Amino acid sequence: MTLTLDAGPGLGLLDTYTGGTDDASTGRIYAGEGRRINRRTQDARYQRSLSEALRLYERVLTGSRRAALDFQEAMTRSDFQFLFGDVLDRQLLGSYNTMPVNWSITARRGRVRDFRTVKRFTLDGGKGVLAPVGELEPYTARAVVDGAYEYAIGKHGAEIPISWETVVNDDLDALSELPGALGLAARRTEERFATALYVTSSGPNSTFFSNANKNLINATVGGADVPTNPALTISGLQYAMQIMGQQVDSDGGPIYVQSVVLEVPPALEVAANNIINSTEIVSATGGGDGTGNDQLRVQNWMRNRVTVRVNPWLPIIDTTTGNSAWYLFASPSSGRPPMEVGFLIGHETPELWMKSPDAVRVGGGAVNPEEGDFEHDGIRYRVRHVLGGTLMDPKMAVASTGAGS
Fold it and tell me: Out of the domains of life, which is the source (predicted)?
């Protein structure tokens, strides 16, 4: 059997292997003027893998159309213009940092049995103040009403195919991060999905945030003295908490909210943290004129009730008011969460897969997945993540576009 090994552009000279069933000589392959293309060539497992690949390579190149198409789909050395360049001194830089997953501080995490539509039921009424009952008089009947929210989960995923030659040439171990990258992509999918529930390209979701739901900051909802869509300031946050505090249940009783989350884009991170972390608040609303006369100086009590969440997905999804809009959410532990993100039971975290090679060694024995499949030496990584969700109680959220009108 005679095979010609093409080391590729800039990787050395062509060499020829001639032999029968004996193992290929890796020393022969790497001898001569060609430079060493991989620092792992002295590894015994690597040498066995290379020898086996040479014996199987002739079968791969049989002219199979399917094999050719599959090979074209995989990422090869030519897809990485710089990673496999002929440079002596090379270093691999790290990946971009990403923010941790924190959507769960504004949404409830749900668990779903299957892909069918699920429902979340509510039961309102019966909690109002009891009416006095006179002697021998009948008790007053009161209504109890139910409601429901529903959604279905779905699959999200991606695949990264690469060629065996690309792995062999990866002397920087750069491709070892690919499975982790897919897992990170799944986590980022959660963040974007949760944000897209209440944010659109034109601003806060107009179905969820509306005058009818009484969760927009304006005079119609909050009263004559409340401005429309105020910017994020102490006063603006005061109006938001006032509007949320004015919400009532179906019996007309107050809704108690112990803690809230202030969600802002990166452009408002400084303003939000300055408000929440200030040591005291100077206010003239107690009767002062705002110039120093009869002002109130109080300890900043809001730091004990308000948690700041910076969401970088806000300006990416909302291309209209994404840098100025801000949101106030009641904590999901308040009883009625503003939204829910659900996951399939038993599959509640991202699942990473690697394609098992459809080949066996000559003489028997399993093949390492990193050596690729039989037809074209392809190596495939895949991630699957199953999730879904829906908006729930609008009384637990307030929004402002920050535009001032």
Answer: Bacteria
